[in-house]
Design a protein that fits this description.
The structure is a homodimer. Chain A is an alpha/beta fold. Chain A has a single domain, classed as HUPs (Rossmann fold), CATH 3.40.50. In chain A, strands 3-2-1-4-5 form a five-stranded parallel β-sheet, sandwiched between helices. In chain A, helix 6 crosses helix 7. The interface between A and B is large, with 46 and 46 residues.
Chain lengths: ~230, ~230
C-alpha cells in the first residue's frame, strides 16, 4: 500500500445506507477518501446525515462535504421528497418504477461528485448503486454510469480523468452484506429506512431489500426494527 | 401554430443573460415555455434573477422555477462563486480555461432541467450555450450536450424522450445580437456582467464578449456601462 500522502483521491458518495458504506470500505483499500453526502429533502435526512458522519469518523476521512440539492425538493414528484405522495409498502415482486423514484436523481449526485473531484484533483468517483437486486430505478444501471463517464470526459477541463466506479452494482444484497462483514464495514452505523428515523419500519422498499439481504446471508441485521418480517 | 394547450413543453434555462434570452425567443416559436433559473452563488445573482423574471414576464411563461445549487457554491474553485478568486479582466485572445470556469457547472444545470422536464412531461431542454465565440468552457461544447442527451436516455424512465437543443451554440455573438433583434427578444431586460449589478463593468470576459457582439453587429447595447471599450 502506498503511503497515504501519495494515495490517489476518490470521491465516495455516502448516503448513510448499507450499499454506500460497503462501497466506501472497498474504496478505502486503494484511495484516500473524500466523502460526499447529498441531502435532497428526504424524510429521514437527519438520521442519514448522522450515519454519514458516523461512517466518515469510522474511516477517518480526510475530507467530507455535505450539500443540499434543493432543486430535487422543489421539483418533488417522489414519495421520498414529496409529503403528498405516500411511501408504498414493499412489494419486491412489483415491476416498474416505484413511487420513491426521484427523477434523474443520480445525475445530480454525480454532477456534484464530479465538480468536487475536479476541484480536488480526484481520479475516481465511487457510488453504491445496485442494479440487479434494486428497486428498478433507471439511474442505477451501469449503462447510465457509462454514459455519464463519457459526459465527464466531454465536459471537464482537458486532461481531467475521472472514472465512475460502481463496485457493488452487480451484487445481490446478501453479497453486499457478506462483503461488508468481510471488510469489517461498520454496518451497525448505517441507516436504510425511507420512512422512519428512530426504529427502522421494516416494511418500506428499502427496509425490505436490506432485511432480505441479511436473511439470505444468514446474518442478523444489527439495527432496531419496528417490524422484522421474513422476506423471500 | 398549434393552440397553446396542445403545444409541447420545453424547459428553457434562462440565466438572465443575452444568449439564453435569444434561446428563449427561439424556443417560444414552437413550445410552451417552462423557464428555469439556477442560482449557484454568482456575485451578481440578484441582478440576474431580476433579469430572469423580467424575461419570463415578457414571454408570459406559464411555468417558472428558481433553484439554488448550493453545491457549486460550497465547492468554489471559480471566480464566479469564490470571493477569494479575482474576476480576471477580459482577454479575448487568451487560450485555456478562464478563472470564471465553474467545474462541470452545466451538468448541474442540465440535471436540474432534466428532472423538471421529466416531472412536467416536457420533450425538450433549451440551453443558450455558445461554443465558437465563447470563453472556452469545456461544458459549452456540443459534444458535451450530445453525451448528456445519451445520459438522459439511459437514466430516466423508459419512454422518456428529452432532447437538448442548443440553437445558438454555433453562432458568433454578433449573430446572436442580430437574431435577438430579428425575433424581438427583450435584450434590454437582460444582464451579462459577472462583476457588477448596477452598471455593467464593461471589462470582464462576459461584458467584453457582449460588447464586441453588439459592436460587430453595428448596434448599440441598450444596457448602462461603467466603461464601454472598443473591442476587435
Amino acid at each position: 500500500m502506498r503511503p497515504r500522502s501519495q494515495q490517489k483521491i476518490a470521491v465516495v458518495l455516502v448516503s448513510g445506507g448499507m450499499d454506500s458504506c460497503v462501497t466506501a470500505a472497498i474504496a478505502a483499500r486503494k484511495y484516500s477518501l473524500a466523502l460526499l453526502h447529498v441531502n435532497y429533502g428526504q424524510r429521514t435526512e437527519a438520521r442519514e446525515l448522522k450515519a454519514f458522519h458516523d461512517v466518515a469518523d469510522f474511516y477517518g476521512a480526510k475530507q467530507r462535504l455535505v450539500v443540499s440539492l434543493k432543486a430535487l425538493e422543489a421539483i418533488g414528484h417522489s414519495s421520498l421528497t414529496d409529503r403528498d405522495i405516500k411511501v408504498s409498502r414493499a412489494n419486491l415482486k412489483r415491476k416498474g418504477i416505484p413511487s420513491s423514484y426521484v427523477p434523474f436523481r443520480n445525475a445530480h449526485l454525480l454532477a456534484t461528485a464530479t465538480s468536487w473531484a475536479e476541484a480536488l484533483g480526484a481520479s475516481a468517483i465511487f457510488i453504491g448503486a445496485v442494479e440487479e437486486d434494486s428497486s428498478g430505478y433507471p439511474d442505477c444501471r451501469r449503462i447510465f454510469y457509462d454514459a455519464f463517464e463519457k459526459t465527464i470526459a466531454a465536459g471537464t477541463k482537458p486532461g481531467t480523468r475521472i472514472k465512475i466506479l460502481t463496485p457493488v452494482i452487480g451484487m445481490k444484497k446478501d453479497e453486499i452484506v457478506k462483503t461488508g462483514v468481510r471488510l469489517k464495514a461498520p454496518l451497525h452505523l448505517t441507516w436504510s429506512c425511507y420512512q422512519s428515523s428512530h426504529k427502522a419500519c421494516g416494511v418500506c422498499d428499502s427496509c425490505a431489500l436490506r432485511l432480505r439481504g441479511f436473511q439470505r446471508a444468514g446474518m442478523k441485521d444489527p439495527l432496531p426494527y419496528a417490524k422484522r418480517p421474513l422476506y423471500r
